[in-house]
Q: What sequence folds into this?
């Protein structure tokens, strides 16, 4: 039995060129096509039009907002900053007074994101690279917590903050007496609890895919788990941390349900979303205030997303394509 040999004159590059393209190559070719570019531009334009209308309306006088659409700005432009001045700094109770609520949103969101990132990263590393009995079942339990609806945990958590935990007449956890700015702790705790299952699950998937040889080499060199986590794991999972940080930031910043339940109408604790809901009321009157207030509420999330955009894309694609 003989095997046909390639002609001696056939270059090796021609043989390599005949190999079928990899999955990542086919995906890259598809996403780089002219049709995909046109579709992406159409989607981007359609997605941006409502935001552009909101932005333009926030600078239009109240009378023009009530009588004409925002697109009339291009034919008869009229510009004013009274809407922003009114919702941010006016002393009238019905005008918005969003400056304080804006600060509250920052005070709520930043600590929640930082604590959720830290706790989720620690837990994910422990479940991925520190062997202990029951780690598999613990990870399954954490994964299952994502299925539990948020609304089911609100009432027990609220009772914990209000009455503590009493079992058989014995107080196991006393009710915390929080006043003033201390009430931020309830909102922080609630958001962190609700975000940890998804955060641990996402980061665990990234950390567990790190090369085992790298971890073993570090252990042979005498590195402790804390040093491995700080000097090896954290730099490698930067895109994953950025992706989770963006999701967490957007969810906490735009949240209304948790903030409304655990902060109520307390102006010293309530975030922007609570005040915007009060401004909207039942009929959405004073639309010029709503447009300005809504655009104020999206400024920070847009800045955060643009600042972390490249890491966000890397985090979504990491480990998804091979070859």
A:
């Amino acid at each position: 039995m003989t095997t046909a040999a390639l002609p001696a004159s056939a270059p090796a590059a021609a043989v390599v060129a005949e190999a079928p393209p990899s999955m990542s190559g086919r995906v890259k070719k598809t996403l780089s096509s002219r049709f995909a570019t046109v579709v992406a531009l159409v989607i981007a334009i359609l997605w941006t039009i409502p935001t552009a209308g909101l932005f333009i309306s926030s600078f239009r006088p109240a009378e023009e907002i009530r009588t004409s659409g925002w697109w009339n700005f291009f034919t008869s432009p009229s510009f004013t900053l009274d809407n922003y001045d009114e919702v941010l700094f006016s002393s009238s109770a019905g005008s918005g007074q969003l400056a304080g609520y804006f600060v509250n949103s920052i005070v709520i969101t930043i600590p929640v994101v930082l604590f959720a990132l830290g706790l989720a990263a620690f837990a994910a590393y422990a479940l991925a690279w520190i062997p202990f009995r029951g780690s598999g079942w613990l990870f399954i339990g954490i994964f299952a917590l994502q299925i539990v609806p948020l609304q089911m945990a609100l009432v027990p958590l609220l009772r914990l903050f209000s009455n503590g935990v009493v079992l058989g007449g014995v107080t196991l956890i006393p009710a915390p007496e929080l006043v003033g700015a201390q009430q931020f702790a309830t909102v922080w705790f609630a958001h962190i609890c609700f975000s940890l299952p998804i955060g641990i699950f996402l980061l665990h998937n990234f950390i567990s895919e790190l090369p085992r040889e790298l971890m073993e080499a570090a252990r042979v060199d005498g590195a402790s788990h804390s040093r491995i986590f700080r000097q090896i794991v954290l730099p490698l999972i930067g895109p994953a941390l950025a992706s989770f940080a963006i999701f967490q930031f957007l969810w906490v910043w735009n949240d209304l349900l948790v903030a409304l339940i655990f902060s109520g109408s307390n102006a010293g604790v309530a975030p922007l979303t609570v005040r915007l809901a009060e401004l909207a009321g039942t009929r959405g009157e004073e639309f010029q205030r709503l447009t300005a207030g809504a655009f104020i509420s999206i400024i920070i999330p847009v800045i955060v997303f643009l600042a972390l955009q490249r890491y966000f894309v890397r985090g979504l694609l990491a480990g998804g394509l091979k070859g």
In short: The beta strands are 165-167, 170-173. The two ends are 35 Å apart (CA to CA). The CA atoms of residues 108 and 228 lie 31 Å apart. Residues 12-17, 319-323 have pLDDT under 50 and may be disordered.
